[in-house]
Predict the structure.
Amino acid sequence: MQIAGSIALVTGANRGIGRHFTRQLLERGATKVYATARHPERIDVPGVEKLRLDITDPRSAEDAAAAASDVTLLINNAGISTWTNLVTGDLSKIRSEMDTHFYGTLSMVRAFAPVLAGNGGGGILNVLSALSWFSYDGTNAYGAAKAAEWSLTNGIRIELAGQGTLVTGLHLGSADTDMSAGYDGDKVDPAAVVRAALDGVEAGKLEVVADEWSANVKASLAADPSAFYTVTAN
C-alpha cells in the first residue's frame, strides 16, 4: 500500500517512535493521521487529529474504531517496559506487559479489522522487538509479551489475508527514546526505524528488521542457543 493518500492511526503517538510515525506519515503525504494516547493533550505534532485511547481497554479500542472509521493503515506502536523478570518479578507488572503488548494489540486489531475491510483492506503495522526472539535478564516480562505479540502478528496475517489486509511486523533493538533511557548500550535512531518501517509497508513486506542487532538475533535462531547466549553474556 502507499502512504500518500492513506488515512493512518498511530497508538502511543505522544512520544518516542509513535511521535516519529505521526510526523513521517504526514511528510509522506498521508491524507489524515489520527494520533492517539491515553493523554492526547500531550501530543504536540501539528496537523494530526488527536484521539483519547487506552489500548488495554477493549471498549476504548472500539470507540476509537467508531471515531476513525476511515482508517486504512493501523500502526500498533503503544507499549510499556516495566524492567521486570518472570520468576521473582511483580506479577501485576508482568500482567501489565501482556495486557499492553498482546491483549492491547489484539483489541486494536479486532476493533479495526472490519474498518480496514470496509476501506479496501489496508494494512496493519505492529511494532515488535528483537526481544521477540531472545531473553535478557531484567526485561523478561517485556520479552515474553513481545514474543506473544510476534506470534499474534503472524496469526492475524493469516486470518486477515482474505480481506486483503497487509500485516507487517517491525523488529528493532533498543531505540533512543524515553523507554530505553535506563539502557546503556547502543541505540538506534528512532527516525531511521520509522523510515525503514514505512518503506517496508509500501514495499508490501511482511517483516521489517530495522537494525543490525535485530538481524543478528534473528539469524541466531537457526543455531544452538548456547552460542548466542554465551556471546550475549560476555
Notes: The radius of gyration is 17 Å. The CA atoms of residues 8 and 33 lie 5 Å apart. DSSP finds seven helices and seven strands in the chain. The first strand starts at residue 7 and ends at 10.
